[in-house]
Structures are given as C-alpha cells and as structure tokens.
Amino acid sequence: MVLFKVARVQTSPIEGQKPGTSGLRKKVKVFKQPHYLENFVQSTFNALTESKVIGATLVVSGDGRYYSEQAIQIIIRMAAANGVRRVWVGQHGLLSTPAVSAVIRERVGHDGSKATGAFILTASHNPGGPTEDFGIKYNMENGGPAPESITDKIFENTKSINEYLIAEDIPKVDISAIGITSLEGPEGSFEVDVFDNASDYVKLMKSIFDFQAIQKLLTSPNFSFCYDALHGVAGAYANRIFVQELGAKESSLLNCTPKEDFGGGHPDPNLTYAKELVARMGLGSHAAEDPPEFGAAADGDADRNMILGKRFFVTPSDSVAIIAANAVESIPYFSSGLKGVARSMPTSAALDVVAKNLNLKFFEVPTGWKFFGNLMDAGMCSVCGEESFGTGSDHIREKDGIWAVLAWLSILAYKNKENLGGGKLVSVEDIVRQHWATYGRHYYTRYDYENVDAGAAKELMAYLVKLQSSLDEVNKIVKGISSDVANVANADEFEYTDPVDGSVSKHQGIRYLFEDGSRLVFRLSGTGSEGATIRLYIEQYENDSSKTGRESQDALAPLVKVALGLSKMQEFTGRSAPTVIT
C-alpha cells in the first residue's frame, strides 16, 4: 500500500482558459506550459459540488492523442489530492467520447460504485502530435458535456486561481495493464481502476441492435464493407465489434490502429480528409474499380461519422432523417416508437419532413450537443443529428459515430433480409433515392469563409439583420438576382427557448426562409484574434420526384447566386470564393 502526501502548489491565473461546449482546445505546447493543465483541472474541481469530488468516482481517458498519457498521470495525482475516491481509466488511456458517456451511465465498479463525471482528453477531429492540438473537457453524471453554468464557473475560477492540490509522490500508474492500483492518503484510500476500454460500449450496442441480423448481412457473399477509423480511437472498437462480434473480414478495416498523431492525417471524416476510404468507395479522382457496398469513417474521438455507399455519398442531414424514418422497423431499441426527433438549426430540414409525416415531436436547437441532452433527459427525443457529421440517440448523451454505422447496417439488413442468398441487394443509394421519392430532397451545401477580418464579418451579419426589417426589399433584391428563386416568406435571427429548463439562447444564426421550404442560414464562429469564420448554409427543397436526381451544384446554383448577392459577401469580405465547400 503506497502512502501519498498532498502538496499545495502556488500558481497564478493563465489567460484564455475559457472552455467551449467541447471543452478547452489548444496546441500541445500551450498545454505543456508550467501549471497550464493543472490550473484548468483544479478550476474544474473547484466548480463542482463537493459530493462530485470528495469520495467520488471519475473517468479519465480520451482519444489517445499526443500528450494524453502525461495528462492522465497528472489528473490521477490531482484527483487523489482533491479527495476523489476512485479514478477509472480505459486500458492504454483509450475511451471514445461516446464510450465515456456509456461508462458514466452504465458501468458499475467492482465495489458497486458509479461514476459521477469524467475528464475526456480529446480535441475531436483536430490533428494530433507534438505541434498539433490537445483538448480536455468535463462530462457530467448524465454522461453529457458540462452545461454553461459549469463551464462559466470553471472559466471564472481560472481567472482567480492561486493554488492547486496534487499528490506528486504517487508513482506512475501502468495504464497499459488491466487491474486496480490501491493507494492510501490523508483522506483514506484511493484507487485507479484500469479496465477494458471496449466491453461496456459493446454490451450497450448489443442491447440496442440486432447483431444477428447485421452479422447475416456482413457475412453474406454479396455484401462488402469498409470501415476507416483514420487512426483514431474508433480503432479500439472496430475489430471487436465489426470483426469479432459481427463477422466482417479483417481486411475491411482501414487505419484502425489508434496513433497519437493519427498517422500524420487529419482525423475528420469527410470527403476531403478520408481520402483512402473515399477512393476505395469509388469516389474522387483515384476511384477504385470495384467498390464495396457500404463504407464509413470516424473522427479522432469516434463521435462523428461519414456514411458512403458504392460511388455514393450520404449527407449527414439526409443520414439522420433516413435513420429516423427507418428506426422503428429496423432497430429493436426503437421498436415501441420514437419519443421525438431533433436537429441543430443549420442542419437541413430533411428531418422536419420525416417528423411531420410520421407525426413525431420535432425540435430545432442551436448548435451544441448539450441542447439535445436536455431533451433526452426529459424523455422528449430519441434520435438527433447535426450537419457536421454528428448523429446520435438517447442511449447516451454524446453523438456516436459507431452507433450511426450500426444503425445504417441495421437498415440495410432489414431491407435485404430476403436478398442475402443471392438476389440483387437494396443499396445505400437505393435507400436514399427511395427516401427522396417519399419525402422530397433537400439539396444542401455549406460554404466556409475562414479567417475573415472580424470587423468585416460583424458588419456583414449586422447588414443581414437590418435587411430583415423589410421583406419587400429582400424579395426585390432576390428577384433582381434570380427570378427562378421563390419569395422569402420569413426572416429572423434564430433564438431558442429550451422547453425543459426555459433557458434562452439568442443570436444563434441569421435565417432567410423561402416559400418553397428552401433556406439560407448565416452563422459566425470564432471571432478571435485570427479573425472570424462565416458559415453560409444553402438549402433547396425539391418534392417533385422527377427532379430529385439532379447534381447538387446545378440544383443549388440559383440559390447560391442569391445568397452571395443578398449578403454582399465579396463586398464585405473581399473574398471571391469560400475557403471550404462541403
């Protein structure tokens, strides 16, 4: 039994430790500064009620990015010094963000203990390595990210901190081996429980989906499959779930060894960064000859997903709508019906049409997973999603990349239950096109203008708000740019009153809503010293089934022209083209 002492280390505030909904993200070199991580962790302990610290059980793990191992050891020593009773660590320090949420909600320790929160070490889809990004966020006992009331308190604490507690004499804990390390300190016993990082999550997935039906699909000779973890933490689950449990070939896994620098890549599952998967699925300039039927990718911490069919990309907005439309018949967890569905405001209205047709409760919320969490805790929402490749359900309180893949495989298994012996398969593309024929299609694109002068960006947004005071004026401008585009029926600045706690979120984006269901949305993010990012979302609704098979860029061209002209984008920003088009 190791005895440890508690040291009180003098420190002073460090500027810029304001956590967003996704925690605190900075370059590794910033986190490695003396006292930087310690100040933030102590400020978090100080923001929590005593019962969530003294005698409590905390989870500490993450996506395995560079600096995680050192950070875990520091947090273990600080937790012990602050009176925490137990720290649970996924083997090798690895737990996906959705798995952390599952562990908080589901895992019971050897002594009957339950976790009350977690420090998750991740910068999500940002690159990792000595010169790249690191991040830390705190999740609450419901398994979801800390609400603003807590993150605001953490930030206030970082501005006045003068000491932190640490048990510096605790030896380095071996997090590569499963087992319990017991220690003794001034407040009594303390233990570190290193546990299998996949079993709790796998158990949860098996309680949601029909693994037998998915296994029949994945082992069928006329179905092929490919999963790319982009060297993120999803690799720790891919072999266990897809190969061991569901019988897929090991060769169907790409980049499934977690690496601290993500293999030098950018672990963001989209058409730009998941190049190898995109090519294998028969898309892009280096398209493979005979692509698999289904492909998917995850980001660094495995909460995001990208879904692909053979030579076919499924937009995240369509993906959540299709999952919601098929969930009850395809996924056992939802067999008794959906409580409701929700999407973030910038996500296309494809989900709205499904909700209306199926007579489901529907919610449009600001960007940020915590808004979905509130609805789920109140039993008002079953399935939700956002356009930035995040999809999830009320099984946990984070978005869940592998859940989304299993949901799609469940839909494919259900649609093909008669075809697996050798008939023609119902493909991903067939499912999407059938969905469009039933509900109409939301052509959708996002333009990102990065590092725009912050002053110019604010002027553009102020101009768009001012313009909304006269819809006649707006429609005159719209018709002057393109007579093919419908009239604007309504224009506003999106504001959300949470139906659960009554909190109001203002200035969440500027919307122009057209008579035919089309939309333009303008949002500003990151007005920091490096300038601002303007995000422009353009959505054209088409319910004539003879027109749902057009190329997106052709269908959207008139509306794009209107968006750029109406906002005077080039005039305000000096940019003739966006930095990124999604």
From TrEMBL:
Q: One MF term from GO for this chain?
A: phosphoglucomutase activity
Can you name a GO cellular component term?
Answer: cytosol
Q: What is its EC number?
A: 5.4.2.2
Cofactors per UniProt? Mg(2+)
Sorted alphabetically, the keyword list is: Carbohydrate metabolism, Glucose metabolism, Isomerase, Magnesium, Metal-binding, Phosphoprotein
Recorded superkingdom: Eukaryota
One Pfam family here: PGM_PMM_III
Every copy of the Alpha-D-phosphohexomutase alpha/beta/alpha domain together lies at 17-163, 200-308, 317-417
User: What is this enzyme's catalytic activity, as reactions?
Assistant: alpha-D-glucose 1,6-bisphosphate + L-seryl-[protein] = O-phospho-L-seryl-[protein] + alpha-D-glucose 6-phosphate; O-phospho-L-seryl-[protein] + alpha-D-glucose 1-phosphate = alpha-D-glucose 1,6-bisphosphate + L-seryl-[protein]; alpha-D-glucose 1-phosphate = alpha-D-glucose 6-phosphate
Q: Which CDD domains match?
A: PGM1
GO aspect biological process, one term: glucose metabolic process
InterPro entries, per the entry: A-D-PHexomutase_a/b/a-I, A-D-PHexomutase_a/b/a-I/II/III, A-D-PHexomutase_a/b/a-II, A-D-PHexomutase_a/b/a-III, A-D-PHexomutase_C_sf, A-D-PHexomutase_CS, Alpha-D-phosphohexomutase_SF, PGM
**Keyword Magnesium among record annotations:** yes
Describe the family membership recorded for this protein in Swiss-Prot or TrEMBL: Belongs to the phosphohexose mutase family.
| Binding partners and assembly | Monomer.
Query: What job does this protein perform?
Result: Catalyzes the reversible isomerization of alpha-D-glucose 1-phosphate to alpha-D-glucose 6-phosphate. The mechanism proceeds via the intermediate compound alpha-D-glucose 1,6-bisphosphate. This enzyme participates in both the breakdown and synthesis of glucose.
Q: What is the name attached to this protein's record?
A: phosphoglucomutase (alpha-D-glucose-1,6-bisphosphate-dependent)
Which source organism does the UniProt entry give?
Answer: Kalanchoe fedtschenkoi
